[in-house]
Structures are given as C-alpha cells and as structure tokens.
Amino acid sequence: MKITSLTKRLIQCLAALALMVSGALWAADGVDLNQSPEVSGTPEGSVRMPKQQERMALNYVNQPPLIPHSVDGYQVSKNTNRCLQCHGVEHYRTTGAPRISPTHFMDAEGNVLSNVAPRRYFCLQCHVPQTDAAPIVENTFTPSKGFGN
C-alpha cells in the first residue's frame, strides 16, 4: 500500500504534536503551573503592597537595598515586572514606594536609556526580602565601619 505525501505529512504532524504534549506533561510532572508566581503573576494594578516592616540597615557600600515586604506571587519576567508597578518612575509618588535608582537606567557602557536596562530589569537577582533569620551556615561577616547595626 502506497502512502501519499499528504498522509505522510499528517502522520509527521501528529507525531510532533504527541511529542510536544508528552514533553509538556513530563515537564509539569503533576505540578499545577497556575500556582507558580512566574506563570500566574499578580494582575497589574490589583495590589498595593504596603511596607510590612522597617528597612534594615545596609552592611556595605553599594549593597542593594533589602525588600521590606513579601514578594510572594510577584511576577518578574521578560514581559512584566511587578516591582515597577510601585517603584517605577511613573508610579512611585502615588504608591509611596522608593523610586528605582537612576543607575538602573544605564547599560554596561554607561549609556543612559529611557527604560530600565536589561541587566537591571530582574530585580530579585540583587534585591531580596529582608529577614532576621539565623544564618544557615556560620558567618563571620562584619558590616563596614558606619554600616549595619
């Protein structure tokens, strides 16, 4: 029996579809991806997250400030950045949040950009929620003179 090129193409498409579906099921491994902050996110403008605690002192020069509130459910992806909804230059006055630093608008060569530089866009790479939790491993770090507690 001779298989026509249309039938052959249909079989190839079905095989590719089966591979994609099985790959997605394997990757999810029973996890509800809609519960992931990276997927679900926080709808724009729906939450005003007030500061939940006083800001902790910094420990060294140019330390990224710690975040004094929870970031659970914040979406920071290439398409959206929940942090900028409060800290962006368009919103910080109405939200009362500290304004994003002007240094975040400079690229690696020092050129000033009209938007947040790509290397500074993913806030949670440097800024982390503050906590007074005990260190997981022994830590002998002492703050720079004039910094810290």
Structural write-up:
- The protein is mainly alpha-helical and 149 residues long.
- It contains four helices and no strands.
- The radius of gyration is 23 Å and the shape is elongated.
Q: Helical segment tally?
A: 4
- Element order, helices and strands? HHHH
Helix content: 10-25%
Distance between the amino and carboxyl termini: 83 Å
Shape: elongated
Strand content: under 5%
The count of strands amounts to 0
Mean pLDDT: 78
* Cα-based radius of gyration, to the nearest Å: 23 Å
Unreliable stretches: 36-50
Largest sheet: none
**Structural class, judged by helices and strands?**
mainly alpha
Keywords:
149 residues, mainly alpha
In short:
Helices cover 24% and strands 0% of the residues. The protein contains four helices and no strands.
Please render the helix and strand layout as text.
Elements: H1 5-28, H2 37-40, H3 84-87, H4 92-95
